[in-house]
Amino acid sequence: MTSKTRDSSNQTSIPDRTSVEKGDTLAMVLPVEIDLIMKLNFPVLNGNTVVGTVEMDPTTQKAIITFSDYFIKPKLSN
């Protein structure tokens, strides 16, 4: 077992006209530099707000994001 740690971030934009429902998924292929040894699950954030969860799988080298109801909830105006 290794004790490597890495920080990573990714920005993805979804066009305003795209409908994103609770439970919808987005699959992304992980770069070869991310050499996972076990599955990872963690929240996907927009600032401090959870917009979904991600599962990163070392056998497929993919990250699957499952969206919450963030995009269908009414937003409060300032």
From the structure above, extract its key features.
single chain, 78 residues, mainly beta, four-stranded antiparallel sheet, 4 strands, 0% helix
Topology record:
Layout: E1 25-29, E2 40-46, E3 49-57, E4 62-67
Antiparallel strand pairs: 1-4, 2-3, 3-4
> Strand order of the main beta sheet, please?
1-4-3-2
How much of the sequence lies in strands comes to: 25-35%
The helix/strand series, from N terminus to C terminus, equals: EEEE
| Number of E strands | 4
Q: What does the oligomeric state look like here?
A: single chain
Rg (CA only) = 14 Å
Mean pLDDT level = 86
Helix content: under 10%
Uncertain runs are none
Distance between the termini: 49 Å
Number of helices: 0
Structural class: mainly beta
Question: How can the largest sheet be summarized?
Answer: 4 strands, antiparallel
Question: What is the 3D shape?
Answer: elongated
Task: Report on this structure.
With 78 residues, this protein is mainly beta. The protein has a domain at 25-67. It is 0% helix and 35% strand. The protein contains no helices and four strands. It has strands at 25-29, 40-46, 49-57, 62-67. Strands 1-4-3-2 form a four-stranded antiparallel sheet, with no helix packed on it. β2 (40-46) and β3 form a beta hairpin. It starts with 24 loop residues before the first strand and ends in an 11-residue tail after the last strand. The model has no long low-confidence stretch (mean pLDDT 86).
